[in-house]
Design goal:
CATH class of the largest domain: Alpha Beta
CATH architecture of the largest domain: Alpha-Beta Barrel
Structural class: alpha/beta
Distance between the termini: 38 Å
Strand content: 5-15%
CATH superfamily of the largest domain: Glycosidases
Number of strands: 12
Largest sheet: 10 strands, mixed
Number of domains: 2
């Protein structure tokens, strides 16, 4: 289900934004309906979240989360969902990270409720993945909030377009999506792309809101504090997590994208460093091809993270993303098991999440 197909409620935001007088008139005519819409979807301002009421029960997070990643096309297929549930039962996996919003649109249309309830009944903890500031579809709806080139055209990198991470309206929209995901039965919301762009011609970017007076990490910190606070006004028991670049655990700086690992630990329940060995540059941890050394790369990264948290006196659940795809090396059972063992050997017992973009998982890689 594409974004515009589920916008009759959220569409009021666009009317409000571009034709304020019309909205005022319409609100007077249909006050009761508009009040319901705003309370449910958080359209006009952060204050409306205080009036929202939860409509779904939060499943308790497992002591050790062992998750697989599922895209929207896969979750649409009953056959594929049942295959993955059988896989989970066979291997002891107990959670699923499901795309509900990515760079191509938002997929919450009411039908997710049946899927999340089915997952819960099968003992599978449902996590909603929300891609945050990289959003090609919303750029088309709100081009004035998009990152631009000097000539006013939309800036892009490798086909990806971005919204301004400093925009309060974008912050509110992501809270809105998160609350709706929880309304539809998810028990955790997992924010990805919580950052400024990392590649492409960064020097030419013109930001419509961000003025450089604050650092990028201050903006990402403020966003994180804001969304977590407003989500938990509606769902106090929901878990809010964020995916982060693994390099931040090693370097300790914001890598130019605004993500400071120790700072973000103050806001989220869970931080998920993307410790895919294939994504590390040659020379990391002394390996010409880090993808061939999954145990050393994953454990080394997490050891750095533990050290930084201890030095700062911060505590947060660290639940890494691990690689289950062939890049830089063949990731067979041995390679996957090396990664999983590295997590526990680093003293982390809260689990891990497996990334396979095709959602094709082999039980043989995971069976004990």
């Amino acid at each position: 289900m594409e974004f515009e197909e589920i916008r009759p409620k959220i569409g009021f935001r666009i009317i409000y934004r571009y034709a304020g007088i019309l909205v005022c008139v319409f609100a007077l005519m249909m006050g009761a309906y508009l009040t319901w819409t705003n309370n449910a979807y958080g359209i006009l301002s952060a204050s409306i979240y205080e009036a929202s009421r939860p409509t779904s029960t939060i499943m308790a997070m497992p002591k050790e989360v062992r998750a697989i990643y599922i895209t929207y096309p896969t979750i649409e297929s009953e056959e594929r969902v049942n295959e993955l549930i059988n896989f989970a039962h066979e291997t002891g996996m107990n959670a699923a990270v499901v795309n509900v919003k990515d760079g191509n649109g938002m997929y919450l249309d009411g039908r997710m409720q049946a899927i999340t309830e089915h997952l819960k009944k099968e003992g599978i903890y449902p996590i909603a993945r929300i891609v945050t500031f990289q959003d090609n579809y919303l750029v088309k709806i709100w081009p004035d909030l998009a990152l631009k080139n000097a000539d006013g055209t939309v800036w892009e990198s490798r086909g990806s377009e971005w919204l301004d991470p400093a925009s309060l309206e974008v912050w509110n929209y992501n809270v809105e999506v998160a609350v709706e995901a929880l309304n539809e039965g998810f028990s955790e919301v997992n924010f990805d792309y919580v950052r400024f762009p990392s590649d492409g011609d960064l020097n030419v970017i013109k930001y419509p809101v961000y003025d450089g007076k604050k650092s990028k990490s201050e903006i990402i910190d403020e966003y994180s504090a804001y969304v977590v606070k407003n989500i938990k006004k509606v769902y106090p028991n929901a878990i809010v997590s964020a995916d982060i670049f693994a390099q931040g655990l090693i370097s300790g700086d914001d890598q130019g994208i605004g993500q400071k690992f120790v700072d973000l630990a103050k806001y989220y329940d869970v931080l998920a460093p993307m410790t895919y060995p294939s994504h590390y540059a040659p020379g990391n941890f002394g390996f010409a091809n880090p993808a061939e050394a999954p145990y050393e790369v994953v454990k080394g990264t997490l050891d750095y993270g533990n050290k930084r948290l201890n030095e700062a006196g911060e505590k947060v659940i660290v639940r890494p993303w691990l690689q289950d795809f062939n890049m830089g090396a063949i990731y067979d059972r041995k390679m996957v098991q090396y990664e999983i063992r590295a997590v526990s050997d680093a003293g982390l017992y809260d689990g891990y999440m497996m990334w396979n973009p095709s959602n094709r998982y082999s039980a043989e890689k995971y069976k004990n």
